[in-house]
Amino acid sequence: MVFVTLVISQQLHLYTINWVINSFLSSLILVIIIIFQNDIRRALARLGRGPFFGPAEDPGQTLEEVVRTAVGLASRMIGGLIVLERHIGLGEFAGAGVPVDARVTRELLMSIFQPPAPLHDGAVIISGGRVKAARCVLPLSPNPEIGRQLGTRHRAALGLSEECDAVCVVVSEERGRVSVAVAASSPRTWTPWP
Could you say which architecture CATH assigns to the domain 59-193? Predict the structure, then answer.
């Protein structure tokens, strides 16, 4: 419709309408990028995970180390928040944290969350089988249905899982329980780990 109007305005010598449409069309690419930014980011993330960029780490080994860490933290009543990146990139959150870029091991994660350590507050983001960053600040969930018994770590995990497809593993320092949030749309998606 815009192109038809442009052609008609050129044929009828309607210079003002022609100028307005040309101005709109020149900024159309920017408008499309802004409107579809999440889809573009997802597509670029999938492209980056393709076979052309080298082999990825074994996800089973990464999950094993995260599980061992969560159990270890819970048994010592130490709080922790571990985020596993999936399809949607978490670069904006990792960029605000402290870069680590190390292989995922239980020993590394346990030392990060040890309370006097300078990186123990905030989340650890794991991407492609590597610890990408620590001490990351995540968005808190604005959901008013969340009970008051959930602390800041739980609200941050729920908030991030409402925005993207990341898996958030939370260890409660008060209860020594492990919870997981994935693609949350309400607090009922919290699955306690016995």
Answer: 3-Layer(aba) Sandwich (3.40)
